[in-house]
Specification:
The protein is α/β, with parallel strands linked by helices. The protein folds into three domains: 316 residues, Glycosidases (TIM Barrel, Alpha-Beta Barrel), CATH 3.20.20; 202 residues, Rossmann fold, CATH 3.40.50; 58 residues, Golgi alpha-mannosidase II (Immunoglobulin-like). 32% of the residues lie in helices and 21% in strands. The chain is built from 18 helices and 30 strands. The strands form six sheets. A ten-stranded mixed sheet has the order 14-13-15-16-23-22-21-18-19-24, sandwiched between helices. β25 and β26 form a beta hairpin. α12 runs parallel beside α13. The longest helix is centred in the middle third of the chain and has 27 residues. Belongs to the glycosyl hydrolase 42 family. Its EC number is 3.2.1.23. Pfam families: Glyco_hydro_42, Glyco_hydro_42C, Glyco_hydro_42M.
């Protein structure tokens, strides 16, 4: 959108349906003062649009879009299907969501409906069509958001309607009940089924359900919500050419790669704390890659702090929100938006941070918003004339892997936390990286990382091996390849085909935590942990050896040449401070060996986002994220991109939460 509009967006969520005319006029005036140039509306307003069934009136929102446009503010319009009105649910328990415990949700809050329910889908389609047909061509409407935060508060529905859909989905997947029983290994504990209509939801049982059933049920739910998004998008496209997104998150129970497949651009919400800035930045590096070549949107973040009736986060330090915005824009964002503009006077999120208070005065977040606008205006001409540099190092993030680990967390393994921690090391080392889904294009990459990926598909293996043969380095593990597509254990080898490709034989797979396992690699000794696999060599070379614990003498880190590249097997996770040092040494060694040169010498906590201008020159957007200030080493011939002044080669200082943009000399 920015390519067409010639702007970066600075936006907010707004709920004009909750306020009177005087407040609306006041809010628009203050938005202009703050530099807000896009507003998101309508996402929770179903009862306003359709107070009783069939009586749909969206004139209020048409008026708001027109007013905003007249004031130079664009609009993203939302479908309101996250908050069905009382007339849709009252005396209709069959339409409500049922959780994994069999508890029926009552009306209230949001996401209390079963999104697979046919009556809900029909009425959701009807309200979507009414909104799109009335508003879709209005000047100023520049985008659509479907619903709000799919599956943020709920996961798979366990209602009777979903049970029928689940059973039909299984029949479509497996064809025969015999094939399902075989794939799931259902003979264990006499869990075979005679017909598909006997397969239950994985609800309450005395112990645990079959792993294959649990993971399949999660994937079934993810497929259903993506189908719902596709239905809404298809309706909107009949009446509007504006691009469509959904505000998702890596925390929700969705398959983001599938969700965004048929949408036009990716967007996300995040409320990571300032001290956990890596959890913020991983979103930027990931959502950039769901729709390659198209900028993503940060659709929601707090101007100060998040909160609800039962929680309140620590307010962001002064300057941090501006640093967030610079990082987002520099890493490829077209928009940086807040939740929300005016504090709710009622409801469950009254304590949540906002730009204005419920009584219309600036909050503690107001100065943050002004700082963001100042940064946006300064950055806009430079960023619109450049593109984020494609990273040579790619880290694969998989929502399918997340479902596997939700089924089988073993010793407390949390996929999101593990991936963020792994990512944070690359970030701190100044290695420019793309975080990407399994469908990643490996063209131009030099190092591929696939940690915590229990199932690796045949298609992905073929793609990755071709990458290795052509000179790439693929680092596999830890906890990668040890499960089949059906979430069972391979019976040919512990890690299936990966073992032969890696030139190893997996001798033992077991939990190393607390076992006294110590590994040695790159001259560093460190404790080893997590559920791990240890190897004997079958053509590979050992890089890391276990020197203490239950399996001394076996390898936990190996490398094997295939064609012009390397396949590296990391079977166990180094832990503690020594483990962190070992992992960094591994990243440094293999990035250098792979020829990954897109990296910088910067102090930890200072981000460098490399971008490329039309003439091939690199721009570095440098921003301090940790509040301690930092330095970046720049080469001879570097100039300040704002002033054109020559910068001395060597260490360039960046103050607390400050940013610099520099232009590097053109390399022949």
């Amino acid at each position: 959108m920015s390519a067409k509009s010639g702007k970066l967006y600075h936006g907010t969520a707004w709920y004009p349906e909750l306020w009177d005319e005087a407040v609306i006029l006041h809010d628009i005036a203050r938005m202009k003062e703050a530099g807000i140039n896009v507003v998101r509306i309508g996402e929770f307003a179903w009862s306003t649009m359709e107070p009783s069934e069939g009586e749909i009136n969206v004139s209020l929102f048409a008026d708001i879009i027109t007013r905003l446009h007249d004031e130079g503010i664009d609009t993203v319009m939302c479908t309101p299907t996250a908050t069905p009105p009382i007339w849709l649910t009252h005396r209709h328990p069959e339409r409500l969501h049922v959780d994994e415990r069999g508890v029926l949700m009552g009306h209230g809050s949001r996401q209390h409906i079963c999104t697979n329910n046919a009556a809900f889908r029909e009425r959701a389609a009807r309200i979507t069509e009414a909104i799109a047909s009335k508003l879709g061509r209005l000047p100023g409407l520049i985008g659509w958001q479907l619903d709000n935060e799919f599956k943020a508060h709920v996961a798979a529905c366990h209602c009777e309607n979903c049970l029928l859909l689940w059973q039909g989905w299984l029949e479509q997947c497996y064809g025969t009940i015999e094939a399902l029983n075989e794939a799931w290994g259902a003979a264990i504990w006499s869990q075979q089924y005679e017909r598909f209509d006997q397969v239950p939801h994985p609800g309450p049982t005395p112990f645990l359900h079959n792993s294959s059933m649990q993971t399949a049920h999660r994937l079934f739910s993810m497929a259903g919500i993506a189908q719902f998004a596709d239905e809404q998008a298809a309706i909107i496209r009949r009446f509007s050419d504006a691009p469509i997104t959904h505000n998702s998150s890596i925390a929700f129970h969705v398959d983001n790669e599938r969700l965004f497949e048929h949408l036009d651009f990716a967007s996300f919400d995040t409320y990571a704390s300032a001290e956990n800035y890596a959890a913020y930045l991983i979103n930027c590096d990931l959502f950039r890659n769901y729709k390659p070549g198209r900028g993503y949107w940060l659709m929601e973040t707090s101007p100060s702090y998040s909160g609800s009736l039962q929680s309140a986060a620590v307010p962001h330090p002064q300057g941090y929100v501006a640093a967030e915005s610079v990082a987002a824009y520099a890493l490829g964002a077209e928009a940086f938006c807040y939740w929300h503009w005016r504090q709710h006077r009622s409801g469950c999120e009254q304590p949540h941070g906002s730009v204005l208070s419920a009584w219309g005065q600036p909050t503690v977040g107001w100065m943050n918003v002004l700082e963001v606008e100042q940064a946006r205006r300064a950055l806009e001409p430079l960023l619109l004339a450049s593109q984020p540099a494609k990273a040579e190092v790619a880290l694969v993030y998989s929502d399918r892997a997340k479902t596997f680990m939700a089924t089988e967390p073993l010793k407390g393994m949390n996929y999101r936390g593990l991936m963020t921690s792994y990512y944070a090391r690359l970030l701190a080392m100044g290695i420019h990286r793309d975080v990407a889904p399994e469908g990643i294009d490996l063209q131009g990459r030099k190092m591929l990382l696939t940690p915590f990926l229990p199932y690796v598909s045949e298609a992905f293996i073929r793609k990755a091996i071709t990458f290795v043969e052509q000179g790439g380095t693929w680092i596999i593990g830890p906890f990668t390849g040890g499960r089949t597509e059906e979430h069972t254990i391979p019976t040919d080898a512990a890690l299936g085909k990966l073992e032969a490709l890696g030139g190893v034989e997996a001798c033992f797979s077991y939990p190393l935590d607390g076992s006294g396992a110590i590994g040695e690699a790159f001259g560093i000794q460190a404790p080893l942990g997590m559920w791990s696999t240890v190897f004997e060599l079958r053509g590979a070379s050992s890089v890391g050896t276990i020197i203490d614990g239950l399996t001394p003498g076996y390898s936990f880190l190996t490398e094997h040449r295939i064609g012009d590249g390397l396949l590296v097997m990391l079977g166990a996770m180094p832990t503690g401070e020594e483990g962190d040092a070992m992992l960094r040494a591994m990243f440094d060694h293999y990035a250098s060996r792979a020829g990954a040169t897109l990296r910088v010498d910067a102090t930890s906590g200072t981000l460098v986002a490399p971008r490329v201008e039309a003439d091939g020159r690199q721009l570095w957007a440098i921003v301090n994220m940790d509040g301690r200030g930092g330095t970046v080493t720049v080469p001879d011939g570097t100039v300040d991109a704002f002033t054109g002044e020559l910068i001395a080669a060597g260490s360039l200082a960046v103050e607390r939460y400050a940013y610099r943009v520099v232009r590097l000399p053109l390399v022949d």
